[in-house]
Amino acid sequence: xxxxxxxxxxxEAVIEEMDSDEKVFLIGEDIxxxxxxxxxxxxxxxxYGPERVINTPISEAAIIGAGxxxxxxxxxxxxxxxxxxxTTLTMDQIVNQAxxxxxxxxxxxxxxxxxxxxxxxxxxxxxxxxxxxxAWFYHVPGLKVVMPATSYDVKGLLKTAIRDDNPVMFIxxxxxxxxxxxxxxxxxxxxxxxxxxxxxxxxxTIFAYSNMVFKSxxxxxxxxxxxxxxxxxxxxxxxxxxxxxxxxxxxKTGRLVVVSEACRxxxxxxxxxxxxxxxxxxxxxxxxxxxxxxxxxxxxxSTLEQASIPHAAxxxxxxxxxxxx
Amino acid sequence: xxxxxxxxxxxEAVIEEMDSDEKVFLIGEDIxxxxxxxxxxxxxxxxYGPERVINTPISEAAIIGAGxxxxxxxxxxxxxxxxxxxTTLTMDQIVNQAxxxxxxxxxxxxxxxxxxxxxxxxxxxxxxxxxxxxAWFYHVPGLKVVMPATSYDVKGLLKTAIRDDNPVMFIxxxxxxxxxxxxxxxxxxxxxxxxxxxxxxxxxTIFAYSNMVFKSxxxxxxxxxxxxxxxxxxxxxxxxxxxxxxxxxxxKTGRLVVVSEACRxxxxxxxxxxxxxxxxxxxxxxxxxxxxxxxxxxxxxSTLEQASIPHAAxxxxxxxxxxxx
Amino acid sequence: xxxxxKEAKIEMLKxxxxxxxxxxxxxxxxxxxxxxxxxxxxxxxxxxxxxxCSAITGDDYIVSTHxxxxxxxxxxxxxxxxxxxLLGKATxxxxxxxxxxxxxxxxxxxxxxxxxxGGGIPxxxxxxxxxxxxxxxxxxxxxxxxxxxxxxxxxxxxxMASVFKLPVIYICENNLYAISMxxxxxxxxxxxxxxASSYGMPGYIIDGNDLTEVYETVKKxxxxxxxxxxxxxxxxxxxxxGGHHPNDPGAYKDKEEADYxxxxxxxxxxxxxxxxxxxxxxxxxIDKFEDEIKKMIDDSVKFAEESPEPELDKFLEEVKxx
Amino acid sequence: xxxxxKEAKIEMLKxxxxxxxxxxxxxxxxxxxxxxxxxxxxxxxxxxxxxxCSAITGDDYIVSTHxxxxxxxxxxxxxxxxxxxLLGKATxxxxxxxxxxxxxxxxxxxxxxxxxxGGGIPxxxxxxxxxxxxxxxxxxxxxxxxxxxxxxxxxxxxxMASVFKLPVIYICENNLYAISMxxxxxxxxxxxxxxASSYGMPGYIIDGNDLTEVYETVKKxxxxxxxxxxxxxxxxxxxxxGGHHPNDPGAYKDKEEADYxxxxxxxxxxxxxxxxxxxxxxxxxIDKFEDEIKKMIDDSVKFAEESPEPELDKFLEEVKxx
Lengths: 325, 325, 322, 322
Ligand SMILES: Cc1ncc(C[n+]2csc(CCOP(=O)(O)OP(=O)(O)O)c2C)c(N)n1
Ligand SMILES: Cc1ncc(C[n+]2csc(CCOP(=O)(O)OP(=O)(O)O)c2C)c(N)n1
Ligand SMILES: [Mg+2]
Ligand SMILES: [Mg+2]
Fold this sequence. Notes:
The complex is a heterotetramer, with two copies of chain A and two copies of chain C. By secondary structure, chain A is of the alpha/beta class. Chain A has two domains: about 5-180, Rossmann fold, CATH 3.40.50.970; about 195-320, Rossmann fold. Chain A is built from eleven helices and 14 strands. In chain A, the strands form three sheets. Chain A has a seven-stranded mixed β-sheet, sandwiched between helices. In chain A, strands 9-11-10-13-14 form a five-stranded mixed β-sheet, sandwiched between helices. A two-stranded antiparallel ribbon of chain A has the order 1-8. In chain A, strand 4, helix 4 and strand 5 (about 115-120) form a beta-alpha-beta unit. By secondary structure, chain C is α/β, with parallel strands linked by helices. Chain C has a single domain, classed as Rossmann fold (3-Layer(aba) Sandwich). In chain C, about 45% of the residues lie in helices and about 10% in strands. In chain C, the strands form two sheets. In chain C, strands 1-2-3-7-6 form a five-stranded parallel β-sheet, sandwiched between helices. A two-stranded antiparallel sheet of chain C has the order 4-5. In chain C, helix 1 (about 5-30) runs antiparallel to helix 10 (about 265-275), helix 1 crosses helix 11 (about 285-305) and helix 5 (about 120-135) packs parallel to helix 6 (about 150-165). Classes of the chains: A alpha/beta, C alpha/beta. Chains in contact: A-B, A-C, A-D, B-C, B-D, C-D. Chains A and B meet through helix 4, helix 5 and helix 9 of A and helix 4, helix 5 and helix 9 of B. The structure holds thiamine diphosphate (TPP) (2 copies) and magnesium ion (2 copies). One thiamine diphosphate (TPP) sits at the interface of chains C and B.
């Protein structure tokens, strides 16, 4: 199968959906000639014109509001917030408006809005441009949260997100836009709420999403050398969550390591751990281990930056603490 | 000891600190003649004048920014955001600025800012005025998170918050402003990071904070009738967290129920559960139970509103599921 | 307003009265605890809602606020469904989930009240994009208060609407107060309407208690918008008769000023007088309207009271789908 | 600028050159990957930083932006500590934790650069309250870009600063671009400076490439602020010479316009010429300044390169204290 970059997969998804549904449009900062901060929209302004590729002033709350208003009146906007760190300027619109409108209005209105953004550390862009904030959105009823790791997943899930009738937080990771991965030529979509087993194994379940899938794969490779067989579950969508897939893997392996780049305190990782503890306590042969970011603003210095987020070695260590072979 | 209302305890703390430190001032909406939405500042405008009781336009981000800027330049502001739901408009200022400034600037600057706000359901004020959003702030390194339940706690902790050299999210609950509780006449403060055992017991540990302390006390009373003895741990401050107190109680009881009014998914409750699982797995005689809010925007209708948050009966049920007597 | 039919004028008067009586009833129901939570009556501001909504068509959108009953009624909302919602009933506009601050109606192109001050302003931008893309001359009216005009979203939204020449009419109901904060103290320039110049759009400062003036100004702004000339900002000056909500005595308000507005600037009374002076209606007509409206409102209360509460089981099922 | 001493003028020229050469060096270090992350050089905008900071005193505050090196240097920052920070070293202004976008210095009353566009504007309000409460005539300069002027915080902050008559000077550096978005397209009114009227404050629209004009305007605004007359808004029109950052070729920019600014409006060259015309300096002086500054900058690079990295163990300890 051909291999394409993650950002190219995004672009393909957008093009396919814009071609098949004239109600789909793009709105955000520097998405015109600039093609978006990570160039995922390269050339789209030429293809669709400024009516469907709306390049806005630096007005994040109004970008989301524009998305909501258009969604309420028949369109399917994809609103882009350049860094997840800037969603801080839009939380009222995302949380009090987009997420709640359908419910609050007794299903009178609904908001088919995709909010594309990206997070994560690794580029030396420091504390205000490197956060992993998915836990916030995960905590808000009414939002779906999608965090695809591979080119295949990002394409299929973005198409599903665009077709969804309710708001979707679509969170990418700044370190993987240039990763290449297999993507079929034919059209496909990926349903929400269906985890993907990124590697099958017997001894321990590793739950990981977004860029941490790759760190986990690396760790699993290492651990294999010591005869430890890891099963890697990538939920792909945090809301809805394929909890069955996690539980059934844990029932098989009896052990769970939960990995997340976000700061450990109050992370999604904790939530997964709590859920598994409550639902599969009797199948656990060891305490659940969490491998997550340190509770720190991300430092600029590269060594410190790297030290504040998980690496394969941290996952290896955690696995070895609960798997004795 | 005399008993005073929760809001009166807030007022006393503010008065004492304003009297002893001229750098302390108040800023927020309708805190002048109106005395604040819950009248905690009644009369303060007359006592301190509009220079120290600054009644602002509806500009939440600027309110927090004003607090930060004043804090950076030698003052100790208490900025009020009327409802925690409106902190959505201030997340950049709280999260990207206040929380990170000291760290990012290599300790050059620091932000002695208290952000007072209130959350919670129960007043029929629906989805945009009833949220429990502490999990967001709990997840952000650089913020302290204080959630006092009683008049005693709110007074002592607010004084500590005002004296703290770093930003503090001080989160009250709208249903408890009129609760009365004992407060000594003499001055006192309560250190951050020290849990309070609101009731001692043997069979199960109940972790609860803010208004859920009262629901837990009610449940414990019920359970006593069935011979089940509950220990209620109120952390009072979520950050810093007195994890030792929780672990040592769990070591004694072997069982844990974590209670939080916030939506279950991604809640602080999950985090507590995960931490205890990782650190005290071998002392657990039963799965940890979480009693939390439903994953729903809070409905207006009173019956539904009540159904979406935990009650004593839910806590009783959870305890009985893991304590067999 | 010379080119308005007698019938249309009478319709407007009826709407004014309908809002007035509806709000009076909700205050009463609030005081007897049938309605709870937050209630923000629009008493004294009726001419803005009616003047504005009469100047647009049923296909045009409106975006409302926490003080939104008047906007709903002026746009044609069903009183039964409104009242049922205020009583938290399953038959209400929001199935009892939203209450006063969240009423919406797709068919009426009513994009929702809002509990967040200014929260609807950015949404109007999106509705504006949508009208522009549809290209069939629809417009959006976005209501908000003087208090909201100090919030950041006001700025972002008006700027963006103007940059893209969106067909949105921004109507600031300056009722002099945002809870206890007087707009003379919170708005740093003289008039909210002056802010239009920051966005390169026409600004109008009008007497919001004069239905005719509201109607004509909105009509002009809507015509401009339909022609592709972009948004306008209208400051409709009015007065909040009551406190912020029924439990607020409004002690911070100037008593003389309050009296002045109630006595001299009552939008309902003045429009009534005007139509009488024009010979369009008589005292008897008014009595008839009042009777009809009283019945509608009594019926709505009856409907609401007799309506079922939302079912708990259904709620628990629905929650799983969120 | 007639009442400015020769020495002061020379100081300003030196600062202009210092910024110019510093920025050139950082671009070079970025291209050789000694500096990484985000770097936003202020090449072409030097006159604003220097003119503004020279018009206030060491006790006055400044609030800066992501494009803040010029502001720091103009306020007197130590080049060694700046360069060390850009290289992520333990000796840097932020101990290597912050990088280019977070430099701050309490002693210099430099309240921080900011990675969030507009993020510093609300902070200036608080610094303004503080100066007002202190009552000793201090002022705050708040720098921000044309892009930032479209963000909600601009509106809230300028309104609040004006309502409370805070001593803040708002300086919008309109360098025509916000990344790829031209301010002619993003700002719905003609000039950002026109927005002052929305906040009842004086607005100035000036040539930001002319140091004298910047200096005099800021001086006037600062005088007003110190007298208790409240804030001002100054739009200093300038041009971003480079792309948004060193990796951005700026393909969206008009080439002729770029050439015009570089050739005709170079703030450093023009001020140099002016001082020469005034007979205050000669070519030889300039060569001397250039040499001195080159040495300072080379020294700063040496200092930075020889400085230790932050210690990992210490970091892990520090994290526990967050
Ligand atoms: C963002 C936000 N801040 C504060 C509030 C609390 N609040 C509700 S209504 C109100 C006053 C609004 O004033 P205005 O916009 O003038 O509308 P009015 O009430 O006069 O109709 C305030 C402060 C809120 N709901 N949302
Ligand atoms: C709130 C926010 N939105 C977007 C960005 C990304 N960004 C960084 S600089 C910039 C352009 C800023 O333009 P302007 O304010 O004119 O300053 P300039 O870069 O021209 O100095 C943008 C969009 C950001 N850092 N913060
Ligand atoms: Mg008002
Ligand atoms: Mg710019």
